[in-house]
Each structure stands twice: as C-alpha cells, then as structure tokens.
Specification:
The strands form six sheets. Strands 8, 9, 10, 11, 12 and 13 form a six-stranded mixed β-sheet that branches. The chain has a five-stranded mixed β-sheet with strand order 18-17-14-19-20. The relative contact order is 0.06. The two termini are 72 Å apart. The longest helix is centred in the C-terminal third of the chain and has 54 residues. The chain is an alpha+beta fold.
Length: 1015
C-alpha cells in the first residue's frame, strides 16, 4: 500500500527554517513545474517510528535537491546574459527574418495594391507599400530611408529617386505656383540617419522669405545665407552638440559615423560635406549661447553684446544686486566674511594650440563674450609688459614653474591655458580663461586673467585666492590692488611645498574659509582634457569658441546639480561639525583638569586669535622647538673651545685641531666616502675615460685627506693605531640597511672610500674612549640625524612634485628621458640622506650606552624605505586607516628634562590649535553652505524675474516672431522657477538646521566652549 505524502507536511519533521525554504518552490523554473508532493512506498504494517524515519530521510533528500534548484534559480535571475545566451539563436533568427518581407501581406498595407515593394527603415511599421502610398506617407518625412524589394532581396533607394520634391515656404502638401529649384536641382541634407540627396523647391512667390529663412523654418540649418546648397537638421546638430559634451567625440569622428550610416559598403560615393558641417556647427554653438543668454530679446541686438555676457553664472557665488546687496556697508564687520568670494587659479598645459591659421583669419564668433578674455586686449597687455621677467621660485614645489620654459613648444601658438574658477562650486568665470605662450611670464598672464574675471566683483570686500604657486605669485600683487586679498595653496598641492608655506597658506588653519579645498580647477581639467587632441589642431578663434561652449555646458550641469550637491555637503558637514566639536571639548576638558592647563589654554586662545587676525604675529601652529643643525652644533663646539682656551682649561693635543674639529671632520670624511661609493657604483664598462678620471681624482684627494686626519686622530685616540695596523674590521663599519639601497663599503678594500675611520662610536665597545670625544660625537650625530631627516623631507617633496609634473605635462620620449634623469638624480640624493640618517642613528645607539642617554630613540625612529613617502601618500592603506609617515611630525630632540617637558607642552598646544581649527572650519562650512543655499534660491528668483522682464523688452514686427520671443522668455522663466521649487523641496529640512545653527552661533560667541547638540 502506498501513501501520497504532501511535501508541505514535511515541516512536521523539519525545523521552521527548512519549511520556509520549501514553500516558495511551488512555481515554474525554466518552464518546468516543481510538484509539491512525492510518492513514498511504505509497508502497510510499518510502525510510526519507522514511518517517521523514512520521512526524515525523504525530507533530507528533497531539501538537498531543492537547495540546488534555488541556487540555479537565483543564478539565472541575477545573470541576464546567461539567460540571453540560451535564446541567442532565436535573436539571430529574428535578425535574419527582417531581411525578408516577413509574414505581412505582400500587398500594399494602405491601398491593397499588389505591387507593394517598398519598406521604410525609419518608420515604426515594417509593412510594405506601393510607390504612390509611400510617397504620400512621407510628404512630412522626406529624409526617411527606403528599401525596395526586387531580385529576391531589399535594395536601398531614396525618396528623391521615387520623384519626391520638397516644397519650402508652404504648408505640407501644398505646391508653390512659382517654385524655384535649388542650385543644379541638387540639395544635400545632413541628418542623424545619414547624408541625404534631395530635390528641393524654394517658394518664389511675391512675398516669399529669403531662401535661408525658408530652410530655417523647416528646422534645417543652411550652410550659407546666400544660395544655400547644403543644410543640417536641427536634430543632428543638437545630437552632436550634446554628444560632444558627454563623450567628447570630435566632429571628424561624428561626421564619418553619419557618412557610414548612409553607406557602410564603400560602393556608393558619399558627398564630402565635413568642412561645411564644421562651419554650421560653429554657427550653431554661437547662436545657442546667444539665445540662452537672452541676447535675442535685447532691442540693441547681438552687436551690443558685452564681454562675458553669454556665460552661465554660478548662482551660489555672491553677485551684487542679484543674490547679495549692491553694497555691504550695512553688514557688520564680523559677518562680512560670509560674503567673501572664493577663486581658484590654475594653468593647464594639455590644452595646447598649434600654429594653425591666425587671429586675423579666424578671430572667432564670440570675441570676449564668453569665458575667454578678449584676445586683442589681452595680447596688447602682454606686448606692453613683455620686458617683465618671471622670477624664479624659491619654493621647492615650483620646479614646474621654473622648468616651464624648458618644455618643447616648437610649432605651438599656445602652450596651454590659464583659468580662474569659483573655488567652492567648480564653475568657470566670465573672461576667466586665457592662452599661455612660451617666453611670457605666467604671472603676467595670470594677472590679466584674474583681474579680468574679478572686474565683475569689485564691490566684494574680500577675495580668497587658491593657487598652487600662491606663495610666489602674491608677492608683488599688493602693489596693484586695493581689495582685501587672502592667498592659499590647494590642499592636495600643499604637501609639496616647504614647511613655511604649509603653515602660512593652509586652508585648514586659516579662519573664514570653511572646508574649501581649492582644487576646483583640477576637477574641471579632468573633464576638458578629453578634447585637447581635437582642439589642438583648430584655428585660434574656433578653438576658443569650442572651449567656451564646453565650459558653458560644464557650468550648466553644475547649476542643475546644485540642489543635490549642496544638500549632500551640508548633511556631511553637520555630522562632521558635531564630531569635531565633541573632540575639541574632550581635549579641552583634559587640559583644564589642572590650573596650569587652564591658564595655558587661555594663553593659547589669545595667541591663535591674534595670529588669525594678523599673520605677521607668531604662528601657534608652528613648532618653536628648532632642530639644531650640524653646522650650528659645530659652531657651538668651536665657541666652547674658544671659551676653554680663554679659561686655560683646554685639553687640545694639537695646535690647530681640537677634539670637536677632529670629530666633525671625521663625519665630513664619512659623508664624502658615501658619495664616492655611490658615484663609483654608477660607473659601467662603457664609462668614458673622463668619467673614470674624475673618480680617480676624487679618490686620491680623499685618500690624502684621510691620511692627514688619521695622523691627528692617533693623538686623541692612541688605540686606533693598532686597529689601523691590524686591519681590524668593525662589525658596524661597512654594513648597510638593505632598505637604503646605498652601496656597501668593502671590508677587504684599500680604496679611500672603503677605509674604516674608527670613530669613537664604532670602537667604544672595544676600547676605552675619552668622554669628551664621546660627548662631541653625540652632539654632532644628533644634529646630523636631524639634518638628514630634513634632507629626506626636502628630497621627497621635490621627487613628488617632479613625478606629478612629469605625469601631467611631459609628453614624448626625449622629454620623458630627460625628466627621468632628473628624478633619478633626486632619488640618488634621497638614498644618500637615508644612509646618512641610518649611520647617525646607529652611532647614537652605541654612544647612548656609554653616556646613559635615554628618550632620544622615541623620536629618532628607525627609518625604513616605506617611511620615505609624501604627506598625502596613504602607503597602500585607505584614507580612514592610513597613518602619516613619522618623518613629517618629528620635532627637535630635547636635551634635558626641562626641554622635554616644554616639548610635550608644545606638542599639546599644536594639537589643540589644530583640533580647534578643524572644529571652526566645519562650523564655518555650515555657515557658508547655508548662505550659498540662500544665494542659489535668490539668484534663481532674480533670473526668473529677469526672463519675465524679457517678455515685453523687445517687440518684433511680425506677430509670429513676437510670439516666439514671448514663448522662449516664458519657458526660460519656467525652467528657473522649476529649479527653484525642486531645490526648495529637497532642502525643506534645512530651514530648521539654519535656525539651530544661528542659535548655536550666538551661544558660541557668548560662551566659546558651550556644548549644543545640533543633530
């Protein structure tokens, strides 16, 4: 006897999880149904226990099977390609089926005529039509592509071949009584579907419009305004216009793509209208910019357009009279910083231009109306000031500036462009772009570009400039301006500058800048660099117009995304401000636990406030504990020798060489040995006689210097005579940290660079050394370690900047080879400095045991090759887990307990200053973002009213022309109104945030360390 056991009943012998897995499988998988039951044969007299055991076995088996089916179902649903692969043959069959006439009736779909042999490739239907019907259906679609069925397959044909004539100047289907055919009865139209030959008749009635107007009114763009023979549809021009923005495709590539759509076999000859297409596209770009700027509504016409008038303005920047008051005299001085303008300056050497054509032959269509400065005025200014030479920078970061004129510029009219953008919103400014030329001072170019862009913000009292060479550029700028300017270096570039620049020009430590990073131009270059290849070959005017067009599109996309961008920024800022506020409160709470801490905190607050108000005051972010250089230590030791001589306590055993001179000279000799070993290792079997001669001369000179030094060394250290005589090899002498890469000294070599010197630190464990010598060597090695660390930091900054300059600006094998040689020279210096530090630290380790010096090793850590990285280098870690290399935060080594205490107090002061600055920057960021949100909404409201005023500003003679003016102005006003409504809706919760932030600001002014929960 058999029982039918429903699968769902298995939950009685399974856990709840297993039961839930079984139920959903009662559906089809790949068209096969999974039955919710199973046949199980059981003995008729079987016991309940044996039945239960059998059911459990069945349940386990079915669960395994169903689990595999679940995995198969999930995999199939998550992998559409795998599903498509199983249907690939069907897709292919359908493709091939469309090559035939299909299963439709072979008579005309419209009239039933049996001679239905035409099919349209661009209509939705694939039905067949007779010639008469297909002509009637395409009176308003004259550019559709047709195919004709004969000889057993479809052949391409055109409506022109079927006799269709396009009539302009009349309604669809009407014929002109006096039609005038196009020149030679042949007309070419460029469309998205291809390049079409059509027969076209112009209206030649008494009151007919001009031919180019008739073409424009069909939404075709004529190639010329006199006797046009070619046109492009508005569709293809707009399609390429947007495609060039998004994919940066060139006109050459796009045009030939369209040509291949006309014929991809090479059998049919396609008319070459590429140069005509370029001209139409240039005119289209210019007209679009003028139209969007409202120039068509100005009664004065296009000719009255002013410089910078057709740009897309940044709604979040302060524009007097638009989103901020015309004058800020009524604003309290403490709140004026909120209306500051943030500008970022940069140069791009990718956007070159070859010596193609000239400004006289191709001046461009928008001469100074857009983002580029007016070329005639710009060049006149450069010519007048051509005698001014660009000063060489004294900052290690500026090798790119110092080397700019060494770059190849043969055959170039412009070596790049300079630009000014709004630093907080990444938008280009009107007349804020200009070409750079070889032989001209970059500062000279930038001065003109910056003040050209700044001329529209003359009533803004404060301007914050961000420039990667601001520390050099700003020096003589004060002689020419009256506005309050502040200068900063972008955050990413800052690490490559010297320490003084990193403090003075930092966004992080200066007040009233929020979380501005100053890197806005770099983000814009990433977008525009893609067109550098095509614009490089353009004539000057056309190139400026194309770049203007791309800059305008970039700005417009930024405008439409402001709602999302500002909301994300203020949300992040609110949380970050809370976290940094709590961190500052915790730090100050720990400091205030003692009276000395509370007093120190008050003093620190006064110091940092004084520096924020006046940067000439002492910078509290700087360490006032200076590392003592080796030269300074040598001077101090010589001064001590002089004092001993005066007091009669000198123990000098030589009339000219004191113990301090002996040890310092020995250290200099060791450095010379290291340098000679590195240079000697660079010789190869192909080295020239001149190169080998130079090494030999240096080796001989060094040998004589060592012999003289050893003669004096024996007077102070008699035991070394035995070591030199027996050729004792000291374990540390000649060894090397494998990470330094510096060549080893050969222990069995008699060459000058390999001779051991047996300084006290290397033999103090083998023999007794004079305590005076040990003290002298300790002081010198301590200073030498600090010097070596500073050298390493300098070389790392220089290497980082050179690598970045090479990656961004150097092109070509010869220039890359030259740049690589320079980088390798810096790398060799870094290796020597690394070895110098390692040797100094090893000597300090030996000396500290003899002199009982402790604590120094906590700051002078072992230096690994992985530590030799720039500040911004994460060392392979993520931003959240990376730790900055210790070499960037090491300070001078305290000489006694008192100094050690002062050093700890100094480190605590610097950390408090930085923690306070971080809290303040986030607090300011929220204030700036709230103000920018207000400005955006107010600017859009102003722009809405501006367009509404354009409705009646100009009255055209023809009513239909006037209707177009009114309609466009209303549409633009509606767009701004919709953007404003969208932004207001997405920022609806920011109103409460604004009120809470205002209350918090008042309380912070009254009680600087009050705690207010903001989120």
């Amino acid at each position: 006897m058999c029982f039918q056991i429903p699968l769902a009943h298995l939950h009685a012998t399974s856990n709840a999880t297993e039961y839930m897995l079984l139920i959903p499988l009662g559906r089809s998988i790949y068209g096969q149904h999974i039955l919710m039951g199973h046949q199980l044969a059981l003995p008729q007299n079987s016991s309940s226990a044996s039945t239960l055991t059998s059911l459990r076995i069945l349940g386990t088996s079915l669960r395994t099977t169903l689990h595999s089916l679940i995995q198969s179902l999930a995999t199939s649903q998550d992998d559409p390609i795998r599903i498509w692969t199983s249907e690939r043959q069907t897709y292919l069959d359908e493709f091939i089926r469309l090559e035939g006439r299909g299963d439709t009736c072979h008579s005309c779909h419209n009239c039933g005529n049996s001679n239905a042999v035409f099919r349209c490739e661009d209509c939705f239907s694939v039905a067949l039509y007779c010639q008469s019907c297909v002509m009637n259906l395409h009176q308003n679609m004259p550019l559709h592509r047709l195919k004709r069925w004969y000889e057993g397959y479809f052949h391409p044909t055109t409506l022109k071949q079927l006799g269709l004539r396009i009539q302009l100047g009349h309604s669809a289907g009407q014929r002109c009584r006096k039609p005038k055919p196009a020149f030679d009865d042949d007309f070419t139209v460029i469309d998205v579907h291809g390049i079409h030959d059509v027969t076209l008749d112009f209206c030649n009635c008494e009151y007919a419009s001009s031919h180019y107007k008739q073409i424009l009114r069909t939404r075709w763009f004529p190639a010329t305004s006199t006797d046009p023979r070619t046109a492009a549809t508005f569709t293809v021009l707009e399609h390429f216009h947007l495609l060039s923005f998004e994919s940066k495709v060139s006109a050459f590539e796009f045009y030939h793509c369209v040509a291949r759509r006309s014929d991809n076999t090479g059998v049919k000859s396609i008319k070459d209208r590429y140069s005509v297409f370029l001209r139409m596209m240039a005119e289209w770009r210019n007209l679009k910019a003028l139209k969007r700027a409202g120039r068509g509504h100005d009664p004065a016409g296009v000719s009255a357009t002013k410089e910078g008038e057709i740009v897309v303005l940044c709604p979040a920047c302060p524009h007097p009279g638009k989103n901020v008051p015309e004058t800020l005299e009524d604003v309290s001085p403490g709140n004026r910083w909120i209306y500051s303008l943030f500008l970022a300056i940069d140069a791009n050497f990718r956007l070159k231009q070859r010596l193609v054509s000239s400004d006289d032959r191709d001046p461009g269509l928008s001469q100074g109306w857009g983002y580029f400065v007016k070329e005639s005025n710009y060049k006149a200014y450069l010519q007048e000031n051509a005698s001014l030479a660009q000063e060489k920078s004294n900052c290690v970061s500026h090798n790119a500036v110092n080397m700019a004129d060494t770059k190849s510029s043969k055959g170039l009219a412009a070596t790049g462009v300079g630009t000014v953008v709004c630093a907080r919103h990444d938008m280009r400014l009107a007349n804020g772009v200009g070409d750079l030329q070889k032989g001209k001072s970059e500062y000279l170019n930038m001065d003109y570009i910056v003040f050209s862009a700044l001329s529209r913000f003359s009533s803004i009292p404060s301007v914050n400039f961000s420039y990667d060479i601001a520390c050099q550029w700003h020096k003589k700028l004060w002689h020419r301006v009256t506005q309050q300017f502040r200068f900063f270096i972008p955050k990413f570039h800052l690490a490559a500058h010297v320490a003084a620049c990193q403090m003075t020009f930092s966004f992080n430590w200066s007040p009233y800048v929020g979380r501005t990073d100053g890197e806005a131009p770099e983000r814009g270059w990433a977008d525009i660099n893609c067109v550098a290849v095509s614009t490089k070959e353009m004539a000057p005017g056309t190139r400026r117009d194309v770049l203007d067009d791309h800059f305008g599109d970039w700005n417009w996309k930024k405008v439409t995304g402001l709602g999302r961008t500002l909301l994300r920024k203020i949300t992040d800022a609110a949380y970050a401000e809370r976290d940094h506020r709590h961190a500052l409160a915790d730090l100050e709470g720990s400091i205030e636990q003692s009276e000395l801490g509370a007093a120190s905190l008050a003093a620190w607050t006064e110091e940092v406030i004084a520096w924020e108000s006046d940067h000439t005051k002492p910078n509290p972010f700087n360490s006032q504990s200076q590392e003592m250089s080796q030269a300074a230590v040598c001077l101090a030791l010589i001064q001590q020798d002089t004092k001993d001589l005066e007091e009669g306590s000198s123990i000098s055993l030589h009339s000219e060489v004191t113990p301090s001179i002996l040890i310092s000279t020995g250290l200099d000799i060791k450095n010379a040995q290291r340098r000679l070993r590195v240079d000697n290792a660079g010789l190869t079997q192909h080295s020239t006689n001149n190169q080998q001669t130079k090494i030999l001369i240096r080796r001989n000179a060094l040998q004589r210097r060592i012999d003289s030094w050893i003669d004096i060394q024996v007077l102070y250290m008699p035991s070394v005579a035995r070591f030199h005589a027996t050729g004792l090899s000291v374990s540390d002498e000649g060894t090397i940290d494998e990470t330094t890469g510096c060549p080893k000294a050969k222990l069995d070599s008699i060459k000058a660079e390999d001779i051991p010197l047996f300084l006290p630190s290397s033999i103090c464990n083998l023999t007794t050394c004079d305590a005076k010598l040990l003290e002298v060597e300790w002081s010198l090695h301590l200073a030498q370690a600090n010097d070596a660390l500073e050298e390493c930091r300098s070389h790392i900054r220089l290497r980082h900047q050179l690598l970045r300059f090479k990656a961004q600006q150097i092109r070509g094998q010869s220039l890359n080879t030259r740049a690589q040689k320079t980088i390798q020279a810096v790398e060799d210096r870094l290796i020597l400095s690394h070895k110098k530090y390692s040797c100094a630290r090893r000597a300090l380790t030996h000396l500290s045991r003899q002199l009982d010096r402790v604590g120094w090793e906590r700051k002078l850590l072992p230096l690994k090759k992985s530590d030799l990285r720039p500040m911004g280098d994460l060392g392979g870690c993520t931003q959240g887990t990376a730790i900055m290399s210790w070499i960037w935060h090491v300070h001078g080594i305290p000489s006694d307990n008192g100094d050690r205490f002062q050093d700890s107090r100094l480190a605590l002061r610097i950390e408090w200053c930085k923690t306070r600055a971080r809290r303040n920057r986030w607090f300011e960021e929220i204030q700036l973002l709230l103000e920018e949100m207000r400005r955006v909404l107010e600017f859009l409201d102003w722009q809405t009213k501006w367009w509404e005023a354009r409705v009646t500003l100009r009255v055209a003679e023809q009513s239909e022309d006037n209707e177009g003016l009114v309609a466009y102005a209303k549409r633009q006003a509606a767009i701004r109104r919709s953007l404003s409504a969208k932004f207001r809706a997405s920022w609806h919760h920011v109103t409460a945030l604004r009120l809470m932030h205002w209350q918090k600001k008042v309380l912070l002014l009254m009680h600087p360390r009050v705690e207010i929960s903001m989120i």
